[in-house]
Write a structure and sequence with these properties.
It is found in: Cytoplasm. By secondary structure, the protein is α+β, with helices and mostly antiparallel strands. It is 26% helix and 25% strand. The chain contains 12 helices and 19 strands. The longest helix has 23 residues, at 137-159. The N and C termini lie far apart (62 Å). It binds aspartic acid.
């Protein structure tokens, strides 16, 4: 008999079905009656074992059951009487009367309870046994929400003629402000790959490659001190488009977010459409932050206050008195400020095309129109004090690529973890990542990072200091 998913059983009253899943809870009523709440990925169903109706062997199996045993059950779907209907259960109008039962696997007692909110459990313990935590209803719901949001974005972008392209994970460093993870090369002694802090350069090179509209559900890696709610690896909806200006990108993202909320989180209300726009100066003077919380009612869990922050300064002073970029060195200045960049004057007054999308006090993503002319990109690095040699060494490949008819282009990268965290009303991004790291960047389930045997280190030409 084919397996039936539990959520499909309510429409099958009168039929015999085969269901598979885990014992969520067991309720023994006297000697004769046992209720098993069986759980699969689609929900819970009540299975009834009335022992006087069962043969001895089946009754013995029922008596041996414990929570989290893995079962295969064949039984009859029966409509419940009006008084027995449970409106809180998706299968609350029916129950399944056991005909036969097989224990596919037993289970030890779990280290923590999963039939209630696991957020009260010690987090180290939860993360060590993350696979058990994921059995809990809330965690499962968060994973499904994440999948829904990602599926929605993929469909939306495909309809807008975007192509999803995978970019390398083993790559070369890029100056986007974060420290990078290094991966030593075995075949090239003394050389290293780095893990990408974002696919920034690749997506721009794809524009030179004529892709025109690119996106990727992209993993990004940043080896930063773990301040607050950060993860060393996180996911962005990385996008880039050719022949667009700032307005085009902002419009597309705004529509995409509005439609996504309607489709994936219909209980939420977006406070203001079109999303309000603030200049960086306004945001700082009014809210003291470049990611202002624009919500009118911060206690309303269903309120989403999106907004845009624009007109950031391109450069800021370094401690040593030079200049560095504020957001992204590949950005173009605002068109009316291009001349100042080309003449390298009034550096502090140059504004970038950078646009940040903010949501409920978080930065939900950022992007910009890029410098697609090699001369202009070169000027950015000159302002930051790079010598010609350094520029050619580090960015020669970009400058050369842009010399072969690079189209004007721009993009953005909304962060998926934080967005889904807000949609799920969760307090941190670890609740919406299947297998996150701890606050100090450890994977306690797998035991990473870990020491390596000497031979493995020798292979990659590494000698430890101590
Ligand atoms: N690469 C940028 C980031 O990771 C996003 C962008 O400018 O598209 O923040």
């Amino acid at each position: 008999m084919n397996r039936t998913f539990i959520s499909d059983t309510p429409s099958m009253a009168g039929q015999t079905v085969r269901v598979n899943g885990w014992v969520n809870t067991l309720r023994k009523m006297g000697d004769k009656l046992v209720f098993i709440d069986l759980r699969d990925a689609t929900g819970l169903v009540q299975v009834v074992a009335y022992k006087p109706d069962l043969d001895e062997a089946t009754a013995a199996i029922v008596d041996s059951l414990k929570p989290e045993f893995v079962l295969e059950i064949e039984g009859e779907v029966k409509a419940r009487g009006a008084k027995q209907i449970n409106p809180d259960m998706i299968t609350g109008t029916i129950e399944i009367g056991i005909k036969s039962i097989t224990v596919l696997n037993t289970s030890e007692t779990l280290p923590f309870q999963i039939d209630s909110d696991t957020r009260v459990v010690n987090e180290e313990l939860r993360l060590k046994y993350r696979y058990l935590d994921l059995r809990s209803e809330r965690m499962h719901r968060n994973l499904v929400l994440r999948d829904n949001v990602e599926t929605f974005f993929r469909k939306f972008l495909h309809e807008q003629r975007f192509t999803e392209v995978e970019t390398p994970i083993l790559t070369k460093g890029t100056p986007e402000g974060a420290r990078e993870f290094l991966v030593p090369s075995r075949v090239h002694p003394g050389k290293m790959y780095v893990l990408p802090q974002s696919p920034q350069q690749f997506k721009q090179l794809l524009m030179v490659g004529g892709v025109e509209r690119y996106f990727q559900v992209a993993r990004c890696f940043r080896d930063e001190d773990q301040r607050g709610d950060r993860q060393p690896e996180f996911t962005q909806l990385d996008m880039e488009m050719s022949f667009v200006d700032r307005e085009d990108v902002m419009q597309l993202v705004e529509t995409m977010m509005i439609e996504m909320v309607k489709a994936c989180a219909p209980e939420k209300r977006i406070q203001q459409i079109p999303f309000p726009r603030l200049s960086y100066d306004e945001a700082m003077s009014k809210y003291g932050s470049d990611k202002p919380d624009l919500r009118e009612d911060k206690d309303d869990p269903n309120l989403l206050a999106f907004g845009w922050v624009i007109d950031f300064p391109f450069f800021e002073k370094t401690e040593e008195g030079g200049w560095t970029f504020t957001h992204n060195p590949f950005s173009s200045p605002k068109p009316e400020h291009m001349e100042m960049l080309m003449e390298k004057k009034n550096i502090g007054d140059i504004l970038t095309t950078q646009y940040d999308i903010v949501l409920n006090g978080y930065e939900a993503g950022g992007g910009s129109i890029r410098n697609h002319k090699p001369d202009a990109l070169r000027k950015v690095f000159e302002v930051m004090g790079f010598t010609d040699e350094q520029i050619n060494e580090q960015f020669g490949h970009m400058l050369e690529a842009f010399s072969f008819g690079a189209p004007p282009h721009g993009g953005i990268a909304p962060g998926l973890d934080r967005l889904i965290m807000i949609l799920a009303n969760e307090p941190n991004i670890r609740e919406v990542i299947a297998i996150p790291k701890t606050g100090d960047a450890r994977d306690v389930m797998m035991g990473a990072p870990s020491e390596m045997p000497k031979r493995a280190l020798n292979d990659v030409h590494i000698q430890l200091k101590s």
